Amino acid sequence: MGTISFLILFPLIIALILLFVKSDKTRKPIVIIGAAVIAIFSIILVAENFSKGSLFFFPHEGTTELLSLGFGDSKLSLIKGDAGLASEILSYAMIAIEAVLCLLIVVLGIKYKKYLASILAIIQTPLLIYFEVTKGHEISIENNFYIDKFSMIMVLIIGIIGSLITVYALGYMKDFAHHLKEGEKDRNPLFFFLMFLFLAAMFGIVLSNNIVWMYFFWEITTLCSFFLIGFTKTQEAINNSFRALIMNLLGGLAFCIAILFMGNYFDFLEFSALLDMGAQGVAAGQANPVIALVVALLAFAGLTKAAQMPFNSWLLGAMVAPTPTSALLHSSTMVKAGVFMIVKLAPLLGASSILDIGPGFMVMLVGGVTFLLASFAAVSQSNAKRVLAYSTVANLGLICACAGTGTPEGTWAAIMLIVFHAVTKSLLFLCVGTAEHNVGSRDIEDFDGLFGRMPKLATFMIIGISAMYLAPFGMLISKWAALKSFVDAGNVWLILIIVFGSAVTLFYWTKWLGKMVAIVANRTNIEEKVNKSEWFTLTSLIGLIIVITLIFPLLSSTFVVPFIEGVYAPFGTLVSAAIAEDNMIILVVMVAFILVLPLLFYGKTNKRVVDLYMAGVNKGDNLTFIGSMGQEEEVRLRNWYMDDVFNEKRVNRIGLIVTCVIFTLTFSYMLGMGITLYKMITGGAL
Amino acid sequence: MAYVTKSPWVIHYDGSSCNGCDIEVLACLTPMYDVERFGIINTGNPKHADVFLVTGSVNEQNIPVIKQIYEQMPEPKVVVAVGICATSGGVFKDCYNTMGGIDTVIPVDVYVPGCAARPEAIIDGVVKGLGVLGEKKAGNYKAAVVQADEEEVEVQSFGETTDDTAVATDKEEV
Amino acid sequence: MEFNITPVMIVSALAYLVLGPVVGCLIAGIDRKITARMQGRFGPPILQPFYDVRKLLEKEPVTVNNGQDFFVMAMLIFMIITGCLFFIGENLLLVIFTLTTAAIFLVLAAYSSNSPYSQLGAERELLQMMAYEPAVLLIAVGLYMVKGSFNVSDIISGGPIAVLPLLGIFISYIFVLTMKLRKSPFDLSMSHHPHQELVKGVTTEISGRSLAAIEVSHWYENVFLLGFIFLFFANGSILWGVIGIVAILLLYFLEILIDNGYARVKWQLAFKWCWKITLICSGVNVIVLYFLKMYNLV
Hints:
The complex is a heterotrimer of chains A (686), B (174) and C (298).
Chain A (H helix, E strand, L loop, with lengths): L1 H18 L4 H26 L5 E3 L6 E8 L2 E8 L2 H28 L3 H20 L10 E3 L1 H30 L9 H20 L3 H19 L5 H32 L4 H14 L4 H17 L6 H6 L5 H10 L1 H16 L9 H21 L4 H22 L2 H32 L10 H4 L1 H15 L4 H15 L3 H26 L14 H37 L12 H21 L6 E2 L7 E2 L5 E3 L5 E3 L13 H35 L4
Antiparallel strand pairs in A: 1-4, 2-3, 6-7, 7-8
Chain B lengths: L8 E6 L5 H8 L13 E2 L8 E5 L2 E2 L3 H10 L5 E5 L1 H5 L9 E3 L9 E3 L6 H20 L2 H13 L10 H10 L1
Parallel strand pairs in B: 1-2, 1-3, 3-5, 5-7
Antiparallel strand pairs in B: 4-6
Chain C lengths: L6 H32 L9 H11 L3 E2 L4 H20 L4 H21 L3 H32 L4 H6 L9 H14 L27 H23 L7 H24 L5 H28 L4
Helix pairs in contact in C: 1-3, 1-8, 1-9, 2-8, 3-4, 3-8, 4-5, 5-7, 5-10, 7-10, 8-9
């Protein structure tokens, strides 16, 4: 409807304007107003549709009329009309754009000698165009857009967090431009263009029901990511950007093949139709190998986008990009598109359905293994952005594992994880970005005494890190729900994975937290150099974290549970929140308590403050001491990285092997099943 | 009654001794003497300690160490100088690098002479120190120091100095 | 939303609040006495831990910075919350997570001082937490598989005796308990009274009243940890209740024996052993239990 089109088109327009704005002064109001409008309209979209449950939409408002249909207990509204032509024109426009982009990738691939990217682009885009031209345009699309409570959550995440990050980027990129060497071109217009373009594409992904459109937006995000990773144009950045491109194109290829199967076998191109068909198959007790294959391919695309092993290296490489990029694309939104896809597919992944050996098995195990191994790898990292990246990969893995179980509880946990992770991780990335610009390093060891140097920022980081893993904050609640859903689903391997994984999570977060709370003598405050726009975003995100943590029972009962009820209704599964309400209340009370406690006690002491005990005579400044040989020693405290146990390379190698085995197993099994069924139908001949 | 006398935690520092006294200090912890009967614990941490047990004399190098350990102990605290070197410098008194007894650096409350001081004597010294601790807690800080000084300085000499039977009766009183 | 607070819950919480430290103190005193006897010593009075804490309260209040005490207090408060949640019969996972938070506050207290020994202690403490966390979580999982509920009140009031189907998990809990009670060979981060590992590690910079708070929170913690053993035996009957209490006493004696029988190990060894034991005993236990449940044998 109007708001949907607006949400996709408006960021696009802003993006185009920003492409031609050269000066910081003009850019600033445009970005701020653009961001504000996007945030407001995403809230309006949710408010408009909140009471209506799940809705389908045509692209055009004028030609639609509203019909209400009774669908089980829940009301399902369907908007009908005849805007088929308009949607067809749009589809062709998209194909044209895609062809251009394909050409661009091919050219860039050849220019930088990354032929694999060119080859992947050459395979998939013509394949899709061919399909669109021959078969695709015969299939009529009833509903191009779709909104339910889950897409609303995603819209809010993109609209609010996304626009906050663009505001942050204003200050950050100003500093970034100052750091440029002589003669280097200020490429900030391109940066802001890509950021807003990306927002438009993200809205497209989460609101599309037409799977070809979804694919189009999907590819746009891939390209945005590609250009943003390669933004600095250093050799490392270019290599990493191509790695990201190639891996995401691989997912895109799977997506493309899924579309071909869908169109050719079922004659529909709508996501909702796929879910309905799957649900019918489950209800009728019939396994449909083609559906399983389509779901598996889409899930595969989701897994690549969500940087699951063995594709996690692209997300790690993506950390060379400017920090707002990491926050927006590589932690809070774009990678969430991957898990968005998987959560949408969750009902078809579950062990409750007949597809239990295929895609569900794959998603669950790949997610689980990734969660465990990425957490291991995070222990051995001292680069703050890499720790965050590994933690992101791990959390996405956990989300995949939850959704992969296909149970309502698992889905509940997955959505909660998405929400909490998006808010918290973007905050942490931005904090690291600000710290990096002011401290001059992104190494956690160099954040020594940050509490003295940048007290406010350190406090923000402390809140952010605590929110990532500590009771009673959000992420822990989701982890709890995940554990419970794994136990209920009887998945022993996932239980073992999550208990060990969360133990490791505790280790690497706490040692970072320890660095943040350490009070080191003689640090001067350097905080006033931080830009106002950065403070605005960081403060807003802190506010968001606190609000969400306090109202999460409400979030659960008004958004997540209704969504799951709607999705699982056709399957006849009983739905409840994974955590009993009284426990939620206890947690909320604890959060309130933990927030008040420091206000009452922190930083207040009437005790005599004395020197530290050291391995020699403390010189009186708490920073140096006289060692046993009479020489002066500086105190340097370093964290443990346990490289012998959690060696990054080894962990990644194990991940590569295990996940490849899982992928091979799944796809060959499904292929075998497909061939067998085909033989049964045709009577033996292939 | 001050609880500090019921739970004296000790930190032991070796200035520059021949280790004879140190071995005797550790002997106090053995089942034979078992100072934990009195709640005495040998903690390695000045911030936890109530009793500072110093053996050996003070030399140029360890002045700041002794001072710092003493400063880092929270009040109330007592210092017990164990062995003749700690009380007066002993045979090393006239060495070019020796300052003399511990009391040249920090105020000492109890002197336990001996070379080496016997475990019974050390226990006796610590128990006497507890009395000082109690006084300090009660606020009679100055008086305690003086008293300990007068009482112990008289018995300073080399060799067998402590009367075993006297120590034994002291122990039983506690 | 419903959240029932019954009188029984209030009484249990209050009982824990008041009796927790009393029992904890006595346990600590008896522990030191038994330890002394095992070493052929006479040992301190039973009330020695109480004297120690009273003395610490009397000492001059000093601190190294104005942040550390907050973490110590937060640790004490969260430890009390943990025990209260446990003894009023709340969700076991919630209890474990709160316990973790309490433990992390202690680690943060150590980190906040930025002192070398504290930091080393904090790292080791953290390592130990990483080592025992899986085993502790698996206890909750195992009990849930056997009893069908995470709620402590349901676990103790009915269902089968958990210790037999959860034998592996029980063994790894004994292992983990050694760590949690800070007993040798795993008293790496903050050794107990007669020892001086790392200049008392985590508590190097903590003295006076704050140190007393840590002692008291250990009393609370120990009562809670020993109460945990009860879950393996309780089925609502008095007989098994008595057996449970006897088991607690025996196990605690065993822990003291282990404490006196083993030298401290390196952290690498502690970590690897703990994970191996958890994987082999608890992991296999959970897997076996899963298959037993699948064929309706439990």
